[in-house]
Amino acid sequence: MSNRLKNQSSPYLLQHAENPVDWYPWGDEALAKARTENKLILVSIGYSACHWCHVMEHESFEDAEVAEIMNRHFVCIKIDREVRPDIDQIYMSAVQLMTGSGGWPLNCFCLPDQRPIYGGTYFRKNDWKSLLQNLADFWREKPDEAVAYAVRLTEGVNQTEQLVPVKEDIAFSRKDLENIFVPWKRTFDLIDGGYNRAPKFPLPNNWQFMLRYAHLMNDDAAHAAVRITLQKMAFGGIYDQLGGGFARYSVDGKWHVPHFEKMLYDNAQLVSLYSEAYQYTPDPIYRDIVYESLNFVERELTSAENGFYSALDADSEGVEGKFYTFTKDEIMTILSKDEDLFCIYYQIRDDGNWEEERTNILMRTMEDSELASQLGISEKELTDKISEAKKILLAARAGRIRPGLDNKILASWNGMMLKAYTDAYRVFGEPEFLEKAKLNAAFIQNKLMSGNEIRRVYSSDISRDEWSGAFLDDYAFVIDGLIGLYEASFDEGYLYKAKQLADYTISDFYDTESGMFFYTPKTGEQLIARKQEIMDNVIPSSNSVMANNLHKLGHLFDQQNYLEISLSMLRNVHPHIKSYGSAYSNWAILLLNNVFGLYEIAITGTEAEEKRKEIEKYYIPNKILLGGTSGTLPLLADRLKAETKIYVCRNKTCLLPVTETIEAIKQIDNPNTRPGGQD
Predict the structure, then answer these.
(1) How far is CA 141 from the centre of its chain?
(2) Which of 623, 596, 615 is nearest to 658 (CA)?
(3) Label partner for 619 (CA 20 to 30 A): which of 54, 132, 192, 613?
(4) What is the tens place of the pLDDT at every residue in 510-523?
(5) Quick one: CA torsion of 267, 272, 276, 278, rounded to 10 degrees?
C-alpha cells in the first residue's frame, strides 16, 4: 500500500510511505494535479524527530477513514522541513499570520496555485476530519472568497521580515548596546537560568552574546545570567547525563523534563558556547560538557564518511524518552555497587521524578564538592564512583531499542558542527578535535560541493543521491566553519574556499535593493514568495551569519566591499534589535564587533603555532587570528620571516610587533582580558 513517498531519501518522508494517504512529494506532478483537478493542496510539513508529527500520523494519517477524505478532496503533499526550509518558511509565515503561533507538524491548505488560505499545527483526529470537510465545502461553494483571502494572506507572507533599507551612516556606540541589554535582562530567570518562561530552549547564540557583552562591557549581571544558565542546563534533564549531548528543549521551567529529540544543530552550537564559556571562566563543568557532547556526536551522529547526521528521535518503542529514562529498580539491578550513591547524585526516586509512573530522568542539583561534603567523602572518591557507574549504565542502555536516526546530512548543520570542533580545539588544544574538523571539511568539499556550488543534502545511497540545491544558511554556516578552521590551523586553503563561497553567495543571493540576502538563490525554484531570513531563532538567521562572515572576511582580505555589505545589513536591522534582543542576538554580536572593533592578531614565524595556543588561553571575543610560516593575506605581506613575531592590529593600524604573548595581550585595551582557556 505504498504511496509516492516510497522512492524518497528523506527519513521523514519514508516514515509516511505506507500511509493510506496518497501523499506526493513536492514537485511538478502534485502541483499539476492540483491545477488540473482544481483541488486544494494540503502542504503537511514536519521532520523525522518530531514527536507530535508522529502522534498526528498515528491518529490521522494512518487511519483509512481520514485518508479517504484527504484523498477525495485534496492533493496531499508531504515535506521534510529540513530538506525544503524555503517552503516551510512561506507556509509557517502564513500560519503565524493566521493563528499567532506556529510549530510542527505544520499543516497549511492552499489554492491550486499554492497560495495559502488556512492552516495550523497539530489537530486531533475528529477536529481534523471536521476541518477537512469544512474546507472542501468552502472551496466548492465560495471559491471567490477563498481567492480573495489568499490574495491578502500572500501579501502578508511577502511582507513578513521585510526591512526598510537604512541609507544614512550610523555611528554605533556603547549606548546602543546598553539600550539592547537593559530591557533584555528583565526577562532573565536568575534562579533556574534561561528566561522567565516555559518551555525553555537553550538558545546558545543568546548566551554567546551575553558572554561577550559581559566581557566587553564589564557587566556582572550578564555574566551571572550566563553562568546560572549554563550550569542549570548542564545539571538538568535536558542534558543526557549518561551519554552526553542535549535534547532540543525542556517542557518545564527548570530544565528538568526534556523533549527528548537530539538535534545536531543544538549540540554543535552548545559545544561552541561551552567552549567559549570555559575560555572566559575555566569551570570544569564546561569542559566536561564539551568532551561528553563531542563523544556523543562521534558515537551516534557521525557517518563513516565523516559527515554528521541530523537528529535522533524523541521516541523509542513508541514511547517518548524510553531510551533515556530508568526506574530505580532498573538502576539497582544494573549497578552491583554504589547504586545508592548514584541515586542520590542523580535524584532517582522509587516513585520516579516526573509524571511517568516510577520513571526517572537523570539530573543533578548540587556541585560535586558540596555533595561530597554532605556525604562525608572526598570529592575525588565521589566523582570516581559516579564515573564508573555511568560507564556501566551507558553500556546497559546501549542494549535497548534505540531512537530512530535521521541520517540526512545537511550542509548547514555540518558547517555548524565543523565550527564547533574548531572552537573546542582552539580552547582545549585537543589534537583529535582539529583532526575531526579537517575530516569533516574534506567531506564537505568532496561530497557537498561542486565548484563553488553547495548541495544541501547528501545521501550515501547512490540510487537516491540527487543534486539538491542549497539555501543561504548552507553557504553561511559552511563559510563560518571554514573561517574557524583557518584560524585553528592557519591553512589558507580553507580561508580562500570561504572567500570563493562568499563571492558566489553575493552573486546568487544578494539583493542590492534591500541590502540583504534572499534565502533562496536567483537560480532556484520560483515559489509564491522569495523570503529573507532576518530574525535569529534557535539557529542564528542566515543573514546575520553572512553579515558576520563578511565582517571577518573583509578584515582578513582587506576587502572593502565585504565590510560595506556587512555594515549596510547591520544598519538595516539595528532599529529592530532593542525591541526584541533575543531574536537578534547574532546581529547584536556584530554590533559588539563594530563598537569595540576587531583585533587582527597576526602571528608569524617558526613558533607561530605555539604562540597561537598561548593567545587562545585569553578570552578575546572580538579577535581574528591569522599567520603561520607562509601565506598571502594582506596583513602578512613582508612579515613572514623565521623569527616569531606577534602583530596586534585594529582599524587598519598595527602596533609594534612583539615576541611574547603577554606583551601582545597588554596591547589589547580591555582590562577584563585575563588567562582562561587551556589547562
Answers:
(1) 45
(2) 615
(3) 192
(4) 999 999 999 999 98
(5) 40
